[in-house]
Prior knowledge:
single chain, mainly alpha, 73% helix, elongated
Amino acid sequence: MIGDTTLLTATQNKPSLTILEENLRTRLERFSFSAHTPLERFHEGGGKFNAHNTESIANHLEVTILELRYLINDLYWLQWIKAKKGMV
């Protein structure tokens, strides 16, 4: 099933709001799927915080904070672009 894993190589000459919206939706989905990771790390530590899982949880949360800041910014960019194009 090579066709299922091969990306189409069509040339994109200009930005696409549709692709931007798909990107944002995908990132929101990825966030929801990974939201339970800190709790999994806690359970892996026997339901107790220890040096290893605390570091892992903290690192995950710090990365999540950055990803959410970027996602929020991109959501506002999308709305700004739509407003400028009269699409809101």
